[in-house]
Write a structure and sequence with these properties.
By secondary structure, this protein is mostly beta strands. It contains two helices and eleven strands. The strands form two sheets. Strands 1, 2, 3, 4, 6, 7, 8, 9 and 11 form a nine-stranded antiparallel beta sheet that branches. A hairpin with a 2-residue loop joins strand 2 and strand 3.
């Protein structure tokens, strides 16, 4: 079942869903809007092969910090949310780009927040056909939450648990 604003307020007030920092205006009719953080990781243009078992992943990204970022046409970047969230074991989230950003050609891949996840979100963004300047603090993502039919038996405790800022991909070695 998709949660309404009424249900979200109940989860938030009871601290079953924790969002920090929290502002009332992020609660929408059927989800929460999350804001862009101050860090970005840009994919480097290279012909070097990324070996998921042996490469140093940091060699394939440039990390930046700032109050705004220009996303170049068709550029792939990683952004993060300001909000740190903690989900209970009976709730998961579907992450979507807010429609105003999608309408200018920005895209994100399908992204799920697992039950029991805790941390800031790291999101891949693909640029439009023209440069776009994004600003830290803008409401950028919309998360639709769904209550699971029962609490999960195996809560998320993965490698991205507790992440803050942009978190680069991590492969099992």
């Amino acid at each position: 079942m998709i949660l309404s604003d009424f249900d979200l307020w109940n989860y938030l007030r009871s601290k079953r869903l924790v969002i920090d920092p929290f502002e009332d205006e992020i609660v929408r009719e059927n989800g929460l809007d999350l804001r862009i953080g101050r860090h970005i990781a840009r994919f480097k243009q290279t012909n070097e092969e990324l070996d998921t078992k042996n490469s140093d992943i940091t060699q394939f990204y440039t990390l930046e910090e700032g109050d705004s970022f220009i996303i170049k046409p068709h550029e792939h970047v990683l952004l993060h949310t300001i909000e740190y969230m903690k989900l209970p074991t009976d709730l998961m989230g579907f992450v979507n780009l807010r429609s105003s950003y999608a309408r200018i050609g920005l895209t994100i891949p399908p992204t799920i927040i697992d039950a029991n996840f805790e941390g800031q979100l790291t999101i891949e963004l693909v640029g439009s056909d023209f440069p776009v300047r994004l600003h830290a603090g803008e409401r950028f993502l919309h998360v639709v939450f769904a209550r699971l039919s029962s609490p999960v038996e195996k809560p998320y405790m993965g490698k991205y648990q507790g992440q803050r800022g942009v978190r680069l991909p991590s492969f099992n070695k």
